[in-house]
Design brief:
The structure holds 2 protein chains of 2 kinds. Helix content of chain A is 31%, strand content 37%. Chain A is α+β, with helices and mostly antiparallel strands. Chain A has 2 domains: 138 residues, D-3-phosphoglycerate dehydrogenase, domain 3 (60s Ribosomal Protein L30, Chain: A, 2-Layer Sandwich), CATH 3.30.1330; 72 residues, ACT domain (Alpha-Beta Plaits, 2-Layer Sandwich), CATH 3.30.70.260. Chain A has a 6-stranded mixed sheet with strand order 3-2-4-5-6-7. Classes of the chains: A alpha+beta, B mainly alpha.
Chain lengths: 219, 294
Amino acid sequence: MGVFDVVGPVMIGPSSSHTAGAARIGLMAREILKDEPKKAVITVYGSFAKTYKGHGTDRALVAGLLGFSADDVRLRTSFAIAADQGLAIEFHRSDEEVDHPNTVRIAMTGASGRKMEVLGVSLGGGKIEIREINGAEVALNGEEHTLITVHRDQPGIIAQATTVLAIGHINVSNMRVFRSAKNETAVMIVCTDSPVPNEIVHMIQNITAIESVVTLLPL
Amino acid sequence: MYKYEYKTLHDLLALAEKEKTTLSDIVVRHEVESSEELEEKVRAIMASRLDVFQESIDAGMKDPGKSVSGLVGGDAHKLAEKAPNLLGPLAHKAAVYALAVSEANAKMFKIVACPTAGSCGIVPAVMMAAAEEMQTPRPVLVDALFTAAGIGAVVSRNASVAGAVGGCQAECGTAAAMAAAAVAEMAGGDNDTILQAFALCMKNTLGLACDPVAGLVEVPCVKRNAVFAVEALAAAEMALAGIKSVIPPDEVIAAMAEIGRLMPVALKETSDGGLARTETGKAIAARLEKAMEE
């Protein structure tokens, strides 16, 4: 823990896990949608479901979806701002058993009609992890430059994508690949030391079998 | 390997002695070498934390309202209104500010988690109240906050600052001990005195449970911040008088870690024991649950 993690983060209260972490999950979900969200169906589980009201977890999640960071005071009035901006919120509590006590599922529809569903957990101290995107298992913490591909599982895709990154002199710090089944949908998550420029993203996008590419900045 | 890396408070003190400088200077030098940022930038970030300290004190003092649950809010104002019967001006002001910041946190204003949101009132209250009373120049305040942060980083490394891991001793206990160290420095204490203030304060928070009512950062957290702000001042005063902790600072941290491990899970932020499971605590939790369902 660095000195600015001890004296920090700067955040809207009252809880780093239930408020600041929730805001960051919402922000990450918005990043993953890559569109202005118009509708969000939010389901909270575990401790989030038990104490969301008093911790402002609901307001924090909506603030994140609106693009506000965890120290943005507009978090307090996020529901009113969402209504103003035409973001419809549906909020549910679930008593379903989950792996982590601070879990939330967000199903979003963007202005262009694009749909995305993410599952996020708040790990404490404001740290988060996105564990599912559209049902595919992932692990994203929002702390590094990240490139995500959704592709058809087949030989050579990883090598082609990393070759393109090598051409762009992009250093990979961490990389994981998930797939639902052999020859089915696969997700590749590549964390990099520097942002991946647009031309490199386009080259990766052009690889056969890659359906979509999303890049995320650190939160 | 870093030149100014410290894993224990003993390391930190030894480095300061070797370099013939202050603890805060070592903390700054290590932050500069590990972040690869300029010293001015690192200092500016810490100075901006002080601005948020002030902002959250002001927010808490100005807003007389209650939190969403209705359990806390308005006590900073109440304490500030009354001339103190027992406390001196500094201790009284520190208690008021600690209530203000903790209430601001519960009411969703901006705060600095220091080291956590639940314990966010103690360090700002003690430092800002003391700065007002002693007319402390701002650079001295920034230095003292680096010292507190460096000490907190050692606690985090060798024990924990999370209530779910170590109970409230890890959160409010660490915050109070950091505040004691900071204010001892502001009052002119040397390196050893600063660490003694830390140890004297930390020792007297050991074993403290994290048993929040209805799982919220409100009861007992808000008022505990105020009481611990005063305790931090008492510990610093003792250290400044030359009183030493029989158990050295690093061993106090080790004891805190051990007590955290031995502490039952019911007393570590799960709200399954202690104040959370009193008759009143249970009734409040039931009322809030019912309100949420409606």
